[in-house]
Amino acid sequence: MRKFLPIAFALAVLLSLSSSVYGQQRVLRGKVTASSDGLPLPGVTILDRSNQSGTTTNVDGEYSISVTDQSVLVFSFIGFSSKEITVGNQTELNVVLDEEASDLSEVVVTALGISKEKETLGYSVTAVGSETLTKAREPNVANSLAGRVAGLVVKGTNSGPGGTSKITLRGLPSISGTGSPLYVINGIPMDNTQRGSAGEWGGGDTGDGIGNLSPDDIETMTVLKGQAASALYGSRASNGVILITTKQGSKGSDWSLDYTMNYMAEKPVDFTDFQTVYGQGTGGLKPATAADAQTTGRLAWGAPLDGSSVVGFDGNQYPYSPTDDRYIDFYRTGSNFTNTVSISKGLGTDGSFRMSVSNLSSKSIVPNSGMDRLSINLNVDQNITDKLNVSAMINYIDQNSNNIPFLSDGPKNPNNFLMLAPNISQSIFAPGYNPETGAETVFSDDIYVTNPYFIVNQGVNDAGRKRTISALSTKYAFTKDIFAMVRLGNDVSNDDFFSVDPTGLAYTADLKGNLGGRGQSQRSEFNIDGILGAKFDLAENLTLDALAGANLRNNKFESVGVGGSRFVLPYLYSPFNVETFSRSYEYNEREVHSAYYSVGFGFNNILTLTTTGRYDVYSTLPTDNNSIFSPSVAAAFVFDQLLDMPALDFGKLRASYAVTSGEPFQAYQTAFYYSSANAFNGIPAGSSPTSLPNLDLKPFTTDEIEFGVDLSFFNNRLGFDIAYYEKETHNEIMNASYSIASGFNSAVVATGSTSNKGLEVLVTGTPIQSPNFVWKTSFNLSKVKNEVLSTDNNNNPVNLGQNRATLGNAVTAYVVGEAGPQIRAYDYAYNEDGSIRVDASGLPVRGELINMGSVLPTLYGGWSNEFSYKGIMFSFLIDYNFGNKVLSATEFYSIFRGLHQITLEGREGGVTNDGVTSTAEAYYRALAQNVTSTSVVDGDFIKLRQLTLGYALPSKWFGNTPVLKGLEVSLVARNLAILMRKADNIDPEASFGSNINYTGIEGANLPSTRSFGFNLNFKLN
């Protein structure tokens, strides 16, 4: 409620500002016809740029729309050139549209924020519009890209609101990188550092940079997939670039006021299919005492569930039958409630502004956990003179997360009820602590497996962020075709964190708790660019398009914090109330100096050849080896004009080659540095590093070659965008293991190399286009093959991540000759006849460590459909994922604890192998521990990712309404259903980690969710 008040106040102010103009509204009528034959055109889209309201022509080509004198109407129709007309004082406006051969000559945003015609590009670019991002929205806007862009894999983290979005583009990212593309907002790179993540030892996901942005402020997200598309960004662009263009006002437009309300309810989903035949206990017996009940609460090796009674952990009697109160009932229905108000206006014909205020109130499915985010965005664009333009953007974010869930390992994890025996109701462990003593109610045999009720009721794990992203650009046009630009961008985040092991937590000393950390950090990225650009006609059919520029980038990070052990006074979580005190400090600063150019030649609107180059100098490397030049060349050949094919509207062949570079994040890896240590008997001491530095480190590179074709048929009713690429990384910087006998246990080397080869296909179409009904469809497919070419000096496997269940016995790793990251686990041991080998007790014997498959898919994509009928809009998105494996802790624990369906076999007569019989309990527990390949499952799935149903009320209904000018209502759903999956007990997308090291590793993360809601968009006078 507190955060909603600024929205309500802003709405009231903006309403009062706009009330003075509502009297200028009137209804404009007219007819749209084709220039070729004079026939009426039904289904023409008519958009008022001043307020984004619109309508379509009827079967007779007629329309009516509410306008003002300042309204600018855009008339557009497939196969015809768009037309833009200022209304003025007209009451009737008849429009004639001209046919055009192609609508692929659209302008798209490319590297450095420079707009170019799409038909001249020699690489693949895909743009996703604002409507896609705001209908069935996600708290992290990047997750809305899932299934919509060929080559792009999007995975959210199962960590609640504010969680990280993991994006990989075109296969395996660089070994030494984060895997994430570079995000650029209005031409300025923004910081997307992941602030905190979970690993096999626990931890929480405190989000990334892109998750702070409000989708209501984004006009488009454009994905530059190839290295040629992103080469001008040099460092950090080897994993691709996603360009973000924010919404702006329209020059010459009148006041426009929008209010959008979106509500999404999130329901946790239980994907487990555990057995409910046998209950709590061991050895086929029920627990006989309260102590036995506590230690066997997560073991289902007991007697058959017969409806009798059994003693519980608290000494009370409970039914020994399947419970309806499962682990999933611990969670609540979460919600995301967004209110956004925006106002825009043209400042005469020379400028415009747009301002918005947005509030997101998000309640996690975890009780007492959630996030609030307030966003304020201002965009101003002004022509100072007819040659000088100044534009500015500032985006302020105030985000606060409370009680962020801990994931993966048992301590403080709210998902610890997942493995309860089928007869145990999770609610009997509430409220999780003794109200008199405050001591945690321990519900299992392990005090480190925290009672979920205790941590949600008593836990403290809060994070706050105040962030300002600003950009200022000045552009001076010497002539129509020659310009100079200076652009500055600054991205500053001030974070605070507060984490506590609460008083009463079972595993803390004397139940006194600990101060995990309290402090602040600041992270900043500053960019300044100077660009000079020009376009010349060299001959009658030959043009030259060139630019040159320079960039300075500075990144800083500074953090200070305090902590301590054992609170003196209970529940006073202050650093002055601990028995032992600790402090921390961290600082990092990097700088890159760059120069770049782009030169493009165009011949007769048929052939375009563009070459770029970038020279980077990195501060993190020694001066004699700290620079690199990254070139690219791209060609586009438009061939449709040379063919006599009436059905072909547009045809383009494209090819490109490019090199991008990357720097090491850490400095001080190239020299030997001593550090101070604790004094010994009063004598100051020092220490030397155990990692061997490398004097010859240099920037790693990624090179890529790409071929593609763009085709459009039947008046642009059918289109194809096909690309094939091969890319390879070289000299990747990584850690290598050494024998301690050498004096070092590790070293920094630059020997890593990976390869990716892929095919991407995008098919778009309009199967039906009639006056009242339109069906648009889009299908994308990506096929990728990746391989690790080299790792360290000896090409040893490089381990990345694991989960606690199979600790040390199953990992993900980079393995030379295999796709990466590769899951490595222990197989069965086999006899000569191929049968499973067992020991003298009949228990399975561990075999060899084998490679079981990559965690990255080899085939993936999506199918999107949009239908409209007389103002009714219906759409759905299906995406799919094949060819990857998942290392599942749920699979391990469910077998080990007797919950998995396979453990029903042999419960009565035992399990017999090689003539030896063992009890089912002994056999399956040994199976899970020794043969960790049983914890690896297929990650294949097909999902109904999104569904929307909306209705735009006709604008004529509001012709005489003094305030309301338009209303659109939508019912929306997200992650609606899994249409196919091979994994029995998990959502194959589920994970706790938020970086490439933990991709494809599942276990003890929050449940996946299914979202339902509605969206209201009000157009106000």
By helix and strand content, what is the structural category?
Answer: mainly beta
Distance between the first and last residues' Cα? 26 Å
Radius of gyration: 31 Å
Mean pLDDT: 89
Number of strands: 53
**Helical stretch count?**
7
Give the amount of beta strand, in percent.
over 45%
Largest sheet: 22 strands, antiparallel, barrel
* Dominant shape: globular
Helix content: under 10%
Family: Belongs to the TonB-dependent receptor family.
Signal peptide: 1-23
Membrane topology: Multi-pass membrane protein
Keywords: Cell outer membrane, Membrane, Signal, Transmembrane, Transmembrane beta strand, Transport
Task: Tell me about this structure.
This protein is mainly β and 1021 residues long. 5% of the residues lie in helices and 49% in strands. It is built from 7 helices and 53 strands. The strands form 11 sheets. The protein has a 22-stranded antiparallel β-barrel. Helix 6 runs antiparallel to helix 7 (920-930). The protein is globular. The relative contact order is 0.13.
Strand-helix topology:
Elements: H1 4-18, E1 26-34, E2 45-48, E3 53-56, E4 62-67, E5 72-76, E6 83-86, E7 95-97, E8 107-109, E9 115-117, E10 125-129, H2 130-134, E11 152-156, E12 165-169, E13 182-185, E14 188-189, E15 218-224, H3 227-230, E16 241-246, E17 256-268, H4 290-295, E18 308-311, E19 317-320, E20 334-346, E21 351-363, E22 370-383, E23 388-402, H5 452-458, E24 460-477, E25 482-501, E26 514-539, E27 542-567, E28 578-603, E29 607-618, E30 627-638, E31 648-662, E32 675-680, E33 683-687, E34 691-692, E35 700-713, E36 718-730, E37 732-737, E38 746-769, E39 773-790, E40 798-801, E41 810-814, E42 822-828, E43 846-854, E44 859-869, E45 872-882, E46 885-888, H6 889-896, E47 911-913, E48 916-918, H7 920-930, E49 936-938, E50 941-952, E51 964-981, E52 1001-1002, E53 1009-1020
Parallel strand pairs: 1-7, 13-16, 34-38, 46-52
Antiparallel strand pairs: 1-4, 2-3, 2-5, 5-6, 8-9, 10-15, 11-12, 13-14, 15-16, 17-20, 17-53, 18-19, 20-21, 21-22, 22-23, 23-24, 24-25, 25-26, 26-27, 27-28, 28-29, 29-30, 30-31, 31-35, 32-33, 35-36, 36-38, 37-38, 38-39, 39-44, 40-41, 41-42, 42-43, 44-45, 45-50, 46-49, 47-48, 50-51, 51-53
Helix pairs in contact: 6-7
